[in-house]
UniProtKB/TrEMBL annotation:
SUPFAM superfamilies per record: PEBP-like
Protein name, per record: Uncharacterized protein
UniProt-annotated stretches for the region Disordered: 13-35
Naturally occurring in which organism (per UniProt): Medioppia subpectinata
InterPro entries: PEBP, PEBP-like_sf, PEBP_euk
């Protein structure tokens, strides 16, 4: 009798797991959803991963925390790409000045278009890389890298925004930018988090 009860209990647990698996489509919850990037910034989870390396051994890993000092210099970025296609790379902070009150978000930290394959050096920079600089007492900020596959070359007369310039950086909406340029949904993503630590003054 005891063995029957144990069997029934085990079967019930298995049925619960199966039911839960069906509700989630058999997939584990994505960190992109867990950290609110969907729906705060984009509408769906990209299939591809962007590899972002700042220094040997220092890599962006879906929400890991890095310091402003560690991400001060432009990283090396790569993603699975078709060498005959063009891509747009964007890096945004939707939490400006804070996640609780993102009145200035999204803040544009980096924007490069017309990238041949995944060689960022061959693209046109519209906003030079600017590392994280979260204000004091604003908690963790999400710094999100997104890659979009372009339908063709983007023709623009926009001038490059220098690293030390604020022109066009606040109030940027990558979702709107993608819609305007017919980019569709992003094909790859990665992101880190950072908070004020006094290292940059």
């Amino acid at each position: 009798m005891i063995s029957v009860c144990l069997f029934e209990s085990d079967t019930f647990g298995q049925n619960q797991n199966k039911s839960k698996s069906k509700r989630t489509g058999g997939r584990r919850s994505s960190p992109v959803r867990r950290d609110g990037i969907v729906p705060d910034v984009i509408d769906s989870v990209p299939k591809g991963k962007i590899t972002v390396k700042y220094t040997p051994g220092l890599e962006v890993k879906y929400g890991n925390e890095l310091t402003p000092t560690q991400v001060k210099v432009q990283p090396v970025v790569e993603w699975p790409a078709d060498k005959d296609s063009y891509y747009t790379l964007a890096m945004v902070d939707p939490d400006a000045p804070s996640r609780k009150d993102p009145m200035f978000g999204q803040y544009k930290h980096w924007l490069v278009i017309n990238i041949a394959g995944s060689d960022v050096t061959k693209g046109k920079s519209l906003a030079e890389y600017k590392g994280s600089g979260p204000p004091k007492d604003t908690g963790l900020h999400r710094y999100i890298f997104l890659v979009y596959k372009q339908p063709g070359i983007i023709n623009t007369t926009e001038k490059t925004v220098a690293t030390d310039s604020l022109t066009g950086r606040p109030f940027f909406k990558v979702r709107d930018y993608a819609k305007t340029n017919r980019l569709g949904q992003p094909v790859a993503i990665n992101y880190f988090q950072a908070q004020f630590d006094g290292s940059l003054g």
